[in-house]
Amino acid sequence: MLSESGTSGAGERIAITLTINGEQRQLQVEPWTSLLDLLREELDLTGTKKGCDHGQCGACTVIVDGKRVNACLALAVMRDGAAVTTIEGLSSGTLHPLQAAFVEHDAFQCGYCTPGQIMSAVALIAEGRARTREEIREYMSGNLCRCGAYTNIVDAIEDVLAARSLPSQEAAE
Question: Could you report the average pLDDT of every consecutive run of 10 residues in the chain (173 residues)?
């Protein structure tokens, strides 16, 4: 496809604005750059992992405008104006409750999938749909763990869900 200048557009960059971990960033990206590659290779936010690069493992899960997204499947230019939260932006100073629960329940072994698991679980809790172990498993099914720490991952998520529901239960009594 030719641009207005008559060139193929190869090497041309597109200006986008993203709010990444609360910081607005003006960026120039090539049209084919995935959100994952932008985060890891251009912004050095390497907590988000590149697993399968086909959207099948969930290692690259980030939160975009409040929703879980496989960053390997999202073109950065298509997310212009979005708010992106990565594992690096999840907490400041102290661990996020899910990070602490993952540590407490040993919900990781090799740790490679852990950032994607945690980001997916944060969005899952915010969605408010999962109330049982079975629902947690179902809604987390897009995040794979080759080490098989699923029981501990579900335990960690359950603990955070239970802690979130305590204040509202106590207020009702």
Answer: 50 94 98 98 97 96 98 98 98 93 94 96 94 96 94 96 72 48
Residue 86 has φ and ψ, to the nearest 5°, of: -110, 175
Contact yes or no for 105/159 (Cβ under 8 A) = yes
3-state SS class at 143? coil
Bridge-based pairing of strands 14-20 and 83-85 is parallel
Contact 155, 99 (CB under 8 A): no
Residues ≥6 apart with Cβ < 8 Å to 78: none
For the full predicted model, state whether its pTM sits above 0.85: yes
